[in-house]
Amino acid sequence: MFQNPDIAKLLLRLSLGVLILFHGIHKLIYGISGVKSMVVSAGLPEFLAYGVYVGELITPIFIILGLYARVAAAILSVNMLVAIYLAYGFSLTLSKFGGLAWETPLLYLIMSLLVVLLGSGKYAVNSK
């Protein structure tokens, strides 16, 4: 049976990084007014909304490259926790398809935690 944990780590990093990067590029093009309004509605200062650029533009690049991927994934984990809290309040509301309304950011959270736990693997810029 074929087993290669380093290929699996690479696939995890590329999947997570590329998929999150699309969200960041969208925010770069169309702005973060929606994020700002959620942050302010939660009683937080508006400038915290700019953290979404770190979480969805910078950290995915680091994760894709495998450059300090554990640190980047930890930052992304916090970003996803905040996104879930602001957008859904951790409610158990179901989507029209039957899953949790916030299952997509939850999957990103789990994937980022896996990168934190597993590391980058051998196919990374700063592999050991």
Task: Give a quick summary of the entry.
Helices cover 67% and strands 0% of the residues. By secondary structure, the chain is mainly alpha-helical.
Description:
- It is built from five helices and no strands.
- The protein has 128 residues and is mostly helical.
- The chain has one domain (5-118).
- Helix 1 (5-30) runs antiparallel to helix 3 (51-65) and helix 1 crosses helix 5 (103-118).
- The model has no long low-confidence stretch (mean pLDDT 95).
The count of domains is 1
**Helix-residue proportion:** 55-70%
Query: What structural class should be given to the helix and strand makeup?
Result: mainly alpha
Q: How many alpha or pi helices?
A: 5
Termini, distance in Å?
A: 26 Å
Uncertain segments of ≥5 residues (pLDDT<50)?
Answer: none
Share of residues in strands: under 5%
What characteristic shape results from the CA principal axes? globular
Largest sheet: none
Computed CA radius of gyration, to the nearest angstrom: 16 Å
**Mean pLDDT across residues:** 95
List the helices and strands in order. HHHHH
Compute the number of strand runs. 0
Oligomeric state of the chains present here: single chain
Brief descriptors of the model:
single chain; 128 residues; mainly alpha; membrane; transmembrane helix; DoxX-like_oxidoreductase
